[in-house]
Amino acid sequence: MRQLFSENAQRFDKYHIKLETTDGPILFDYSKNIINDEILKELFQLCRERKVEEYRRKMFDGEKINFTEGRAVLHTALRNRSHQKSINVDGADVMPDVHRVLDQMKKFSNSVRNGDWKGYTNEAIKDIVNIGIGGSDLGPLMVTEALKPYGKDGPHVHFVSNIDGTHINEVLGKLQPEHTLFIIASKTFTTQETITNAETAKEWFLNKAGNKQHVAKHFVALSTNTKLVTEFGIAKENMFEFWDWVGGRYSLWSAIGLSISCSIGFNNFEQLLNGAYEMDQHFQTEKLETNVPVIMALLGIWYNNFFGSETQAILPYDQYMHRFAAYFQQGDMESNGKYRTENGAQVDYSTGPIIWGEPGTNGQHAFYQLIHQGTKLIPCDFIAPIETHNPIRNHIHHKILLANFLAQTEALMLGKTQKEVEDEFQKEGQDIKNNALVYHKVFRGNRPTNSIVLTRITPFTLGYLIALYEHKIFVQGAIWNINSFDQFGVELGKQLAKIILPELDKVKPVTTHDASTNGLLNFINSQRTWGPRKPILLQAHDRSITKIRYNREGDLLFSSGKDKVPSVWYSVNGERLGSYNGHNGTVWCIDVNWDTTYFVSAAADSTVKLWDVQTGQIKTTYGHETPCRTCAFSYDGHMVLYSTDEAMGRPCELFVVDIRS
């Protein structure tokens, strides 16, 4: 490339495109690539031979180009800002439904942001927790982070995706139920990770709120499964619809973007859509030779299939964009990580690259070393806004940031020759003869980069950028003749996990898998802290056992019996925490509260006793004239419900007591 630039002083003029957008110009510079006119001509010819333009038309027209699942691919319809244009799927115009859901999102997000939406204590919402996974999480998370300056007057938005309980526990630990709204994002409302996290959030909420009727004020759903949504406790009118022609990794434009709208406001969410729509127009109407998504896609093909490059780095020089590369890890790798063509044949060429990256200048002090002097060719996309949202100290931070962006693209292209290193040494008075350090300071250069420079990260320009990368992915999938819109690779592990899950409670060794999986599973079972590792015989009651209860965590077992003595056990090893004397008759029932601080027992001696789990002391005794038969804690653990027997002419009676008073 050094030679190409030296031979052509107008190389930048030839290989850059200035995009005039509604929100200011965006410059795309692809001059620092290992290309010339002849190479580009061949790449555009490849694009035409693979009928990318026809495939593009089919997508925008709603034809079912997702050929493995028989679905249209119409995330572009979600941001179709032309109110005159209809888009049909199976003969029906989808745009009325799109506008209906957008109106629903507008009303809801406005009511949350202006304080009209009240929680069960009649207070406004201060925090929103989006519970989803994959496309239901990565897109909204990336956008709300990238547009954080636009969300300062809205509620704080948090995201929970991982089934690891640490994720939701850390988020909930910062919140108050009365001020928190949960958005449950699952099209089927059966996604294991999402629904498990949703149930945990609901349990946490009810532990404070108590009344299940309050769920409707604090939970909404992004789903199409009305039955399961309403059974969960969410009101039907608080269910936001999206459709099977919206792929998960392209869904932030749909109701999945509700958390975005609540964070930055619906007007800004519309600007996000407007930016994407403007890029859609560019992609649809611009000829291939000046079509930025097409050029980016072809350059990726060039390095992937002709240079053997396996990865692509996305390097935004804006801290708010710190999740952009992670978002397109899913967008690109889940789309084009395929090895079968449309007719089922196995490809004999490389397809989707590994996508990675971090914001500058953090990456410069981490992995740029490998990009500069490593043995792998890693094409890089640099994204840099001219203006910052935080111009502190008279823009000094941002000027240093931009200087580093410009320097890195220049350094990667030019490198540093041995002669340049030797000249440097001589200027510094260093001996270059037999100095091996010279070779270590040589940079070969010729590292390809694209640069995207925009005025500022705004909702509009972010939407524009996201759509740009979406269309790049589309073009590459079309050229490779793979389906960029299914994700069967996600399913196999999930299927096997359902088989393995109950085996994590086994006592006997598991032998149903391969030797490695069996060995790993059996080691986990031998060291686990839930459930017995082997059969345990608990011997303490002298007479019949009447009731057993586990606490919420499952690590303690509570038992009652005709020997009048309630007992508590460690369920993992069978050790007894304690046996508690205090009743003078059969203990018919036992229960433990939500946080395992108290347990309650009901007995034939006409008493109900409240015990402190740790000390074994009786906190309160409730006495009656007839035997007490049953007892149970309320959901929040503050109330005890118990009953007495019918005896001595007295009817059965139910009592509710508040253990705090």
Oligomer: single chain
SS content category: alpha/beta
Q: Ranges with pLDDT <50 over ≥5 residues?
A: none
Strand order of the largest sheet: 1-2-13-12-10-11
Tell me the helix content: 25-40%
CATH class category name of the largest domain = Alpha Beta
Can you walk through the features of this model?
By secondary structure, the protein is of the alpha/beta class. The chain folds into 4 domains: 1-61 and 286-486, Glucose-6-phosphate isomerase like protein, domain 1 (Rossmann fold, 3-Layer(aba) Sandwich), CATH 3.40.50.10490; 89-266, Glucose-6-phosphate isomerase like protein, domain 1 (Rossmann fold), CATH 3.40.50.10490; 492-527, Phosphoglucose isomerase, C-terminal domain; 545-658, YVTN repeat-like/Quinoprotein amine dehydrogenase (Methylamine Dehydrogenase, Chain H, 7 Propeller). α7 runs parallel beside α12 (258-264). The mean pLDDT is 95.
Q: Which secondary structure elements does this structure contain, and how are they paired or packed?
A:
Elements: H1 2-7, H2 11-14, E1 16-21, E2 24-29, H3 37-49, H4 52-60, H5 75-78, E3 88-89, E4 92-93, H6 95-113, E5 127-131, H7 135-146, E6 156-160, H8 165-172, E7 180-185, H9 192-209, H10 215-218, E8 219-222, H11 226-232, E9 239-240, H12 258-264, H13 266-285, H14 292-306, E10 311-316, H15 324-336, E11 354-356, H16 368-373, E12 380-385, H17 392-414, H18 418-427, H19 437-440, E13 449-454, H20 459-480, H21 491-500, H22 515-527, E14 545-550, E15 556-561, E16 567-570, E17 576-579, E18 587-592, E19 598-603, E20 607-612, E21 618-623, E22 628-633, E23 639-644, E24 653-658
Parallel strand pairs: 5-6, 5-7, 7-8, 8-9, 10-11, 10-12, 12-13
Antiparallel strand pairs: 1-2, 2-13, 3-4, 14-15, 15-16, 16-17, 18-19, 19-20, 20-21, 22-23, 23-24
Helix pairs in contact: 3-14, 6-12, 7-12, 7-15, 12-13, 13-20, 14-20, 15-20
